[in-house]
Structures are given as structure tokens and as C-alpha cells.
Design goal:
Layout lengths: L1 H7 L10 H8 L3 H9 L17 H17 L3 H23 L6
Protein name: Chaperone modulator CbpM
Pfam families: MerR_2
């Protein structure tokens, strides 16, 4: 069941992924994930590999980064900037919806 949730990108509440699980869910090598973490583009940039656990938010961000890099041949930093803008846009929409100013 956990494999199915990873493949579809659905994590339940407090469930977390390991480095290898996150890489597999994004169809990338673990080194790809490590490079983005060490560059500060993914997760919290913690240097402690043994403590790396990834949430559904990390999974969503990693998949966006990967897709932008692949589809647009974007360098990781540009993909991260675009991802930041997408995430900020979503936060603002959520705030508008919560304030009753938007009905998506």
C-alpha cells in the first residue's frame, strides 16, 4: 500500500519518505535529490543525510523541480525560482479562498 501511495504522490498526514523513496517517486537518482538539498533548492538543506525525511510538500516540490528541469531544460536554480512562484501563487489563492474572496 505504501508503494502505491508513493507512486501516486499521496502521503497521509505525518507519513514521510526516505531519500531513496523520494528519488524513486520522482523517477530520479538519489544524487539528484542530494544535489538539490545541498544547493538549498529542496527540503531544509540539512547536511545530516541520516535525518533526511521528506513530507508530501517536499514530494510535490521535488516533482515540480524535476518536471521543469526536464520539460524546459531549466537549470536547477531557474526551476526552483519557478517552483517558488508557483507555490507563492497557491498560498495567495488559498488566502483569498479562506477570506471568501475567491470561489475556485
Amino acid at each position: 500500500m505504501a508503494q502505491q501511495r508513493i507512486a501516486s504522490g499521496e502521503l497521509i498526514d505525518e507519513a514521510t519518505l526516505t531519500l531513496e523513496e523520494l528519488a524513486r517517486a520522482c523517477s530520479v537518482e538519489p544524487d539528484w535529490v542530494v544535489e538539490r538539498i545541498e544547493s538549498g533548492l529542496l527540503a531544509d538543506g540539512s547536511p545530516y543525510v541520516a535525518s533526511w525525511r521528506f513530507t508530501s510538500r517536499d514530494l510535490t516540490r521535488a516533482r515540480r523541480l524535476c518536471q521543469l528541469e526536464r520539460d524546459f531544460e531549466a537549470v536547477p536554480e531557474l526551476a526552483a525560482l519557478a517552483t517558488d512562484l508557483i507555490e507563492e501563487n497557491q498560498r495567495l489563492r488559498d488566502r483569498l479562498r479562506a477570506a471568501g474572496l475567491r470561489d475556485d
